[in-house]
Write a structure and sequence with these properties.
Helices cover 50% and strands 8% of the residues. The chain is α/β, with parallel strands linked by helices. The protein folds into three domains: 13-207, 3-Layer(aba) Sandwich (Rossmann fold); 211-462, N-(1-d-carboxylethyl)-l-norvaline Dehydrogenase, domain 2; 468-514, Single alpha-helices involved in coiled-coils or other helix-helix interfaces (Up-down Bundle). The strands form two sheets. A seven-stranded mixed β-sheet has the order 3-2-1-4-5-6-7, sandwiched between helices. Strands 8-9 form a two-stranded antiparallel ribbon. α4 (92-101) links the parallel β4 (83-86) and β5. Bound molecules: 6-phosphogluconic acid.
Length: 515
């Protein structure tokens, strides 16, 4: 079916990029009564999409599709000020689409990038478009294909006037949670979106704030996924449970504090058998993880800002080491681990507790990074509001998020989630189990990088003293890097003229501190 020229100014909003996420977001917008102009570089994709979704699909919602084969016609079909969502690959493809759109737009139009863009790219694009009088929103869109179709979590950043243009659409399309319980409202169907509830979107902040929040969301997602994988590995290889048995365990966990989308899908995966071989499905999946970079970006940014987010970084490195499949196979023939399981017994509940505490640390790290970034970039992020919009729609949606929301409602300036009285009490109760699981993993040679780094984070954070005293003395010794003293105010720096190794003892007079 060849596309005819669309009527001018007939569409409420446009979307460029009809891959699955784009198509689903279009259908979501149309279900909410918006006339959506659609454009894809390959016109055949647009034609197929329109043929698969005739007007009857949208029934009496008032929404529908306005297809265009030509970018000029697409732009002309939009009501003004124009609202255009781009959902293409992050990086070069996004720039290419923006570059081809800009000459066709007028002052006051808004371009919304819904891809997983690096937040510094978003800052650059917003500035460049701003200089031309155009508005730009960089919005995180989380929830995968299903989320895009029936309600994602949406994290928009940019100028407030840009958000004002996008807000009615984003509020309508976002996932909804129950106002009292914070539970996602399920049950949306094509043409029948959910009614009522609190939308999982809010204005995040200026510039790259929205994409930044999405980036760290993904960092937390990496950690959460890795922690579930470590739980599986320990249950399987230190407790000897089958994938099906672990699936049942996870279904039980999903009834309690660990209730989350990621636990739910892990239980589904572990129950699945391979249709070809009949083996547990996980056993036919090659253990070499892929990644598109958002976890790495989070870790690089955390290093730049000096924020300890070890569990997130470990989750990225765990993917990296998994990807060295051939090398690991060779190493397995050379490097031997423990020859027999240790006598230390751990329960399934202990693994649950270890997962809970480690997960809390990963979230604490991610939210601490938000605090630091907010200060560094001047964004004034509202951490409680961020936790709120993560409660539904996104990949890390979980019952737990309601508790994080409540923690920030109690103390908006909370320094670290671990310090919230509810979470502090939870960890106190569960930490003995957590320690025994990390010990068991170490003794049995089951790698648990995210579990153990989370425990080290907790132990470092709660310790009044750390061995950085020795470290500072080492630095002063070999590089005259100076040190601060426990008996002097912070910010005063001292240096010792270290003697040579034949005179290792410092005389009191030589300790005469020079500043
Ligand atoms: C989401 C996801 C989504 C995607 C990421 C992660 O929130 O919907 O985070 O954005 O799954 O691209 O992908 P990788 O695991 O490939 O890095």
């Amino acid at each position: 079916m060849a596309l005819s020229k669309p009527a001018a100014t007939s569409a409420d909003v446009g979307l460029v990029g009809l891959a699955v996420m784009g198509q689903n977001l279009v259908l979501n917008m149309a279900d909410h009564g918006f006339k959506v102009a659609v454009y894809n570089r390959t016109t055949a994709t647009t034609e197929r999409f329109v043929a698969d979704n005739p007007p009857a699909v949208f029934g009496d919602t008032g929404g529908g599709l306005v297809p265009a084969a030509d970018l000029r016609d697409f732009v002309a079909s939009l009501k003004r000020p124009r609202r255009i969502v781009i959902l293409v690959k992050a990086g070069g493809p996004t720039d290419a689409v923006i570059d081809s759109l800009v000459p066709l737009l007028d002052k006051g139009d808004v371009v919304v990038d819904g891809g997983n863009a690096l937040f510094t790219d978003t800052m650059r694009r917003e500035k460049a478009l701003g200089e031309k009088g155009l508005l730009f929103v960089g919005s995180g869109v989380s929830g995968g294909e299903e989320g895009a179709r029936f309600g994602p979590s949406l994290m928009p950043g940019g100028r407030r006037e840009a958000w004002a243009l996008l807000e009615p659409i984003w509020v309508a399309c976002a996932a909804k949670v129950d106002a009292k319980t914070g539970k996602p409202i399920e049950g949306a169907r094509p043409g029948k979106p959910v009614q009522g509830g609190v939308p999982c979107t809010t204005y995040i902040g200026p510039g790259g704030a929205g994409h930044y929040v999405k980036m760290v969301h993904n960092g937390i997602e990496y950690a959460d996924m890795q922690l579930i994988c470590e739980s599986y590995d320990i249950l399987r290889h230190a407790k000897g449970l089958s994938p099906e048995a672990i699936s049942k365990v996870m279904r039980e966990w999903n009834q309690g504090d660990l209730d989350s989308f990621l636990i739910e899908i892990s239980a589904d995966v572990l129950q699945q058998r391979d249709p070809v071989t009949g083996a547990p499905f996980v056993d036919v999946v090659l253990d070499a993880a892929g990644q598109k970079g958002t976890g790495k970006w989070t870790s690089v940014n955390a290093l730049d800002l000096g924020v300890p987010t070890g569990s997130i970084a470990e989750a990225v490195f765990a993917r990296c080491i998994s990807a060295l499949k051939d090398e690991r196979v060779r190493a397995s023939a050379v490097l031997k681990g423990p020859t027999a399981p240790s006598p230390l017994e751990i329960s399934v509940d202990a693994v649950r507790d270890a997962l809970y505490c480690s997960k809390l640390c990963a979230y604490a790290q991610g939210f601490a990074l938000y605090t630091a970034a907010s200060k560094e970039y001047g964004w004034n992020l509202d951490l409680g509001a961020i936790a709120q919009i993560f409660r539904g729609g996104c990949i890390i949606r979980a019952r737990f998020l309601q508790k994080i929301t409540e923690a920030y409602q109690r103390q908006p300036a909370l320094e670290n989630l671990l310090l919230d009285p509810y979470f502090a009490a939870q960890v106190e109760k569960a930490q003995a189990n957590w320690r025994s699981v990390v010990a068991k993993a170490a003794l049995d040679g089951v790698p648990a990088p995210a579990f153990s780094s989370a425990l080290s984070y907790f132990d470092s954070y709660r310790r009044k003293t750390l061995p950085a005293n020795l470290l500072q003395a080492q630095r002063d010794y070999f590089g005259a890097h100076t040190y601060e003293r426990v008996d002097r105010p912070r910010g005063e720096f001292f240096h010792v003229d270290w003697p040579d190794s034949k005179r290792p003892e410092l005389k009191a007079s030589e300790l005469g501190m020079s500043r």
